[in-house]
Structures are given as structure tokens and as C-alpha cells.
Amino acid sequence: MLLHFNEMWKPVLVMIIVNLAMAFVNVFMKKVINEGMDHLTILTYRQAISAIFLAPIAFFYERESKMNGHIICLLFLSALVGVTLSQYLFLVGLEYTSATLSCAFLNTVPVFTFIIALPLGMEKVSMKSNSARAKVLGTLVCISGTLLLILYKGMPLINPQSHHIEDKATATPSASNLKKWIIGSMFLTAACLFWSSWFLIQDRVGKKYPYQYSSTAILSLFASIQCAILHLIIQRNNAKWILKGKLQIMAIVYSGLVGSGLCYVAMSWCVKQRGPVFTAAFTPLIQMFVTVLDLCILQEQIYLGSFVGSILVISGMYILLWGKSKERKQNALKDTEENQKDEEWHNSTANPTTNKLETSE
């Protein structure tokens, strides 16, 4: 009973804690980016701290792990797609928008994961079943919500009068704000597409190399090197590498140890235990946590477009997950019936003498 409870609820509890930790990471990142800290500097230090933190743990607990060239190539690709590109684009989008909106886009990750998995043969859709129709409907609703998030900002929901007074005082043209909103939303969409691809790559990595600490440490090392090279190509200003103030140091250390270290280990473990779509399904929790932190710490506005778009995205995502859950139950029932038939056939062929005696009687 206790074993069944652990198998069922342990991944759920782990993903709730992971998303709470990631919410704090997003708020910290928004704060230091507002102070002018460079995106690639953040990622380089963050991944380097993660690699340094996880390397000794991997050495003591997973020293028996063996690698080959194929696994190294997979981990390099995983670092490029899941960290370097996705997190860089996410931070750029975060700069142009808000922490709450950026987390609203993270809710599209399960649907994007499902869409990318279709042509790869990792997901199948047969329109004859209700589960398949639910998955398609959920995908369409989620995409509609994403388009709304990108194209419609709307009025502020919290104290709109003070917002209008602030706009008049600063004389900021709304067209310019809307342009930044759309550009930031496009960066966030691209980041989520790469993030979704990472779940599928990580699913393959987990099957070929089931060592969470080692794989995450190597992934972080590759990502740190990739970000440093990208930084040298794009930003040649050495002053960007210098951290200023306690907040920047604390944000980098926390995001490295927790955000890129422990959280990636936990997510890799959950992908191995329950699959990529299950792991991605908990992303709406980040938005809920960040919305509270956003209002309390950053004191940013929540807009109508973000609110309505988020509801559509979350609704579509859970329609998709309901379809997947129903499909899993149908497949499990089908497998059970096939196993019973195979067992009956095996018993009948294994005891031909008994069968003859029964028929003669």
C-alpha cells in the first residue's frame, strides 16, 4: 500500500516542489534583468555553478556509469536545445514582458511536446476514439490561447486607473509597449518550442543513460561552455562578466544550485518515471506561484489578455492530458486482454495431453 502510494504521488510531489522553486528563479531573473544584467552572463554562471555542484554528487553516487560517443552527442544536443537556446530566448522574452506572462507561455509546453512528438512517432492520433479527439481539441484550444497571449495585451486588471495616470505621466506611447509585448511573446514562444523538444530528447537520454546526476552535470557543463562562446561572439564587453551587488550574486547562485541543478535532476527523474508529457503537465503551477510573487515582490500589472489567454492555454492543456490519460487506460486494458489470451494459448499448447483427456471424457 505504501509502495503504491510512493509510486503514484512521489512524482507529483516532486514536480510541485520543482515548479515552486522555478517560480522563485523566474522572479529573481526578472529582477536582475531589470537591473541591466546580461542574459548570457546569467546563463554561463548559472550552468557553471550547477555543473560544479552536481559533479561531486555524480562522482560518489553514479561512478559506475559508462558513456560513449552517442550519449555525449545526445547530452550536447540536450544542452543546446534545453538550456542554451531555450533559456536565452526565455530571458530575452522575460525582459520585454513580465514574469507572469512568461510563465503563461510555459503552459504551452505540454501541447508543443505533443505536437512535436506526433511526426516522430512518439504520439499517435486516431480520430475514431474520444481520447484522440480530446487531444486534438486540447491542442487547438491551447494554440488559440497562445495566439491571444501574443496578439492581445488588454487593459490592466489590478488598479487600472493608476496605470492610466502613470502612462500619462511618462507619456509612453501604447503602440511602442504593444510592439515590445508582441516581440517578447514571440521570443517566449520560440523558447517554449525548444523547451518542449528538450523533454523528448531527455526521454531518449534517460533510456540510454539513466543517471540523473551525471547527465545533468554534463549537460550543465556543455551549456556553460556554449553560453560562454555565444557571449564572446555577441558581447565582447568584459565588464558584463562582473556581478554587481548581493542580489545578482544570490540570484545566480540560487538559479544555478536549484534552478539548473536540483530541478533538472528532478525533472529528468520524473521523465524517466512517468514520461515527458506528465512532467510537462505541471508547468501551470509556475504561473500560479509567479503571479503571487509578481504582485508581492515585483509589483507588476496583470493584463486582461494574459488572464484570458492563460485560461485558454491551461484548459487546452488539461483537455489534452485528459485524452492522454484515457488513452493510457485503454492501452493498459488492451495489453491486459492480449496477455490473458497469450497465457491461455500458452497453457493449451503446453498441456496437449490434458486437453485430449478432457475432450475424450
Automatic annotation (TrEMBL):
One of its GO terms (cellular component) is membrane. Residues 347-361 have a biased composition (Polar residues). It is a multi-pass membrane protein. Pfam families: EamA (PF00892). Keywords: Membrane, Transmembrane, Transmembrane helix. Residues 331-361 are annotated as: Disordered. It is found in: Membrane. Residues 11-150, 183-321 form the EamA domain. Belongs to the drug/metabolite transporter (DMT) superfamily. Plant drug/metabolite exporter (P-DME) (TC 2.A.7.4) family. This is WAT1-related protein. The gene is LOC101497530.
